[in-house]
Amino acid sequence: LALALHAGSLCAASGTAFLYHDYCIIGAGPSGLQAAYFLHRASRDYVVFERSHAPGSFFALYPRHRKLISINKQYTGKLNSEFNLRHDWNSLLSHDRRLLFRRYSRDFFPNADVMVRYLEDFASLLKLRVQYNTAIVHVTLERDARAWNGHYFLLTDQDRQNYKCSSLLVATGTWVPNVVNFPGSEHVEGYETVSINPEDFAGQTVLILGRGNSAFETAENILGVTNFIHMVSRSRVRLSWATHYVGDLRAINNGLLDTYQLKSLDGLLEGDLEDLAIIKDKKGKLHITLRFYLESRNTSADIDSITLPQDELDNFATRAPYDRVIRCLGWKFDFSIYNRSLRMMPGKGNKNKYPQIKPSYESRGTRGLFVLGTASHSVDFRKSAGGFIHGFRYTTRAVHRLLENRHHGVPWPSTVYPITQLTNSIIKRVNEASGLYQMFSVLADIILLREDATAFEYLEEYPVGVLPELEMQTGRKAPNGLFVIIMEYGRNFSGADKDVFYYNRAVGEAQHAWQSNFLHPVIYYYKRLPTEREMRLRPPDWPLPRPDAVHHIVEDFLTDWTAPNAHILPLRRFLENCLSTDLRNFFAESCFLFAFTRQKLPPFCRQGYVGMQGLLGSEELRRHAVEAGLLEDHTLTDFSGNRPPDSREGSEDQLLRDHVIPVRPLQHLVNAKDE
C-alpha cells in the first residue's frame, strides 16, 4: 500500500497520469510469458504488454510454411520429467503438468498453429497478467534517486497511455525483416509476404537470397514444381549437425542440397548481396548483374544497352533470367521505440541484429533493463540455444533469480549437503538436468565449498559469464573454493567445415576423456572465485578462466554418465585430489576398524558411523558384502583362525588401502595404550 501511494504521489506530482508497476514486460511471446510466470509465482507486481490480441503473435505468421523445427520427442524411455525436457524443445517451465507441449501435439516437428494455442493456454491457465492490444511505441527514462536503479522507465502505448516501472524486461524477439538494398531490390519479394502455394511457382525459375532455415524452408516448399532454384548468400551453408548450433540449417529443410550435389539443376552460390543488381526486362524476367556495371549508366535504361556479366564471361553462373527473386534473410531487433537516453545499441559484427547486453542479460547501457528470449541471443550466438525456447526458458529463470536477489533480498536457491554427497550430486545433475544440457557452455551448476570441506552448497544453472560477480548476484559466499559443472563439446569438433562423421570420432576410455568430442560434462575447480580480469583474459573459446584443476567426464553414446569405472570412479578421485580427502562410502565394520587404525576418519565415517547414522545392517546385506569381497565372513572362521578354502583373500588389504591418509598399525595403538 505504501509503495502504491508513493507511486501515485509521483505521478500526480509530474502532472502526467502514469500507471505504475514494479516490472514491465514488453511482448507476450514465449520469453515474455516465461518471465511473467516466475514473477507471478513470486507474487510480484508486473504487467505484460502485447500489441496483438493474443500471445505468441510471431507464431501466428511464422514460419510461413507452418512446420516448426523444434523437436517434440514423445518418448525417451524415462519417466524423469527434468530429463525429458532435454528432448522437449517447445514447453515452457511451469508447475502445471497440463502445460507440457507433448499434450498438444504428437508430431516430432509440430505445426506452428499448435504453438499459438499452447501459448494462449499457458497465459490463461496460469492467470498471467497480460494486457493485449497494447503496442508500446516509446520508452524513455526518468531520473530519480529513489528508484531501484536510479531511474524509472516511462512507456507510452499507441493510445498515448503512459506507464511507469522500476525494471523493464524486453521480450519482443527479433521480428523486423532484414532487408538488403541494391539496384533493383524493389523487384524482390519478402519471405514475410511471398505466396506459400506451390502452384504459384509452377514452371518458374526462382532465385532465393539467403541461406538460413527460412530460405531452405521456402525452397523445400516449391522444390518439386519449379524449373530450378538458385540460392545465393555471402557465406557458405552451415549445417547444424556440423556446427552443433540449432539455428543453422536443419536436416528437415535441406532437400535442395541433394538436388544441387546430385546435379538436378538447383544450385548454391556465394557472393555479397550488396554487390548485386537486378534488371527487369520487357517480358518481366529478372536479370542478375553486378552493381559496378551500372555505376556509370542510367539504371532505368533499356536492358539491351546495359552490360551484363555474361557479355564478358559467357558461362556466368546466373546468366539465365529469373521469374522471381525472394528475400529470406531473417530478422533483427526493433530499436526504433527506445529513446537515446536508454543507450540501446546494436551489437558488433554478425551480432548487430541484437542489442548489446551483458552476460547477465542486462543492457550494457541502462541498469535495470533486461533483454530476454531471442533478442538476448548475442550472449551465445552460434554457440548454444539461448535464441530458442528450449534455451531461453532457462536463461529467463536465471534473470528472475538475479532480480529476486537484487530487488527483494531473496538469495539464489541453493541446497546444502554433507561432503559425502558431492559425487552423487554431480552425477545426478549431469544425467538429468535440462538447463545444463541445452545451455551448454553458458549455464553452469556451482558448488560452493564450506570450511574444511565438510559440506557444500549447490547452486543450479548460473550464468558463467558473470562468475566473478557470483557473490553479489546470488547473495551466496564463496570463501573456500568452488567447483563449476558445465557441459561442453570438444574444442575442435564444431564448425561449418568440420567432418563430424569421421572414423573414430568418439573416445570411450576415461584416460582420454579430455579428447571427448560430443557433449559431455566438464568440472572446473577454483581455489578462489575468479576475477573479472581473469574472465576477460581467458583462453580463446574457453567458457571460463583457467582453473586450478579440470576434469572431463568421458563422452557417452547414450548420454548416460553412470558407468562405475568410466564415469564415477575418475570423477570421485578428481574430487578427492582437489579436496585432499576420502569420499568413499564404507560399511560400519570398516569405520570401526578405521577408528583404531587412523588418525583421521574419512568424512563418511565421521558424518555417518560416528554420528550413529548410516544404512541399517541386515543378514542379506552382510551376505552380499561378503560375496562382493567387501567384508570378512567372520561367521565362517573357527577359533583356530582357519578359513574355508573359498574365502576371499586380500579383502582386508583392499579395505585398509588408502592413498591419501596413512594407516597407523594396530599394534602401535595397543603398545601406546599399554604404555
Automatic annotation (TrEMBL):
Pfam families: Pyr_redox_3. GO terms for biological process: ERAD pathway. Signal peptide: none annotated. Its cofactor is FAD. Keywords: Endoplasmic reticulum, FAD, Flavoprotein, Glycoprotein, Oxidoreductase, Signal. One of its GO terms (cellular component) is endoplasmic reticulum lumen. One of its GO terms (molecular function) is flavin adenine dinucleotide binding. It comes from the Eukaryota. SUPFAM superfamilies: FAD/NAD(P)-binding domain. Belongs to the FOXRED2 family. Probable flavoprotein which may function in endoplasmic reticulum associated degradation (ERAD). May bind non-native proteins in the endoplasmic reticulum and target them to the ubiquitination machinery for subsequent degradation. Interacts with SEL1L. May interact with OS9 and DNAJC10. Interacts with TXNDC16. This is FAD-dependent oxidoreductase domain-containing protein 2. It comes from Tauraco erythrolophus (Red-crested turaco).
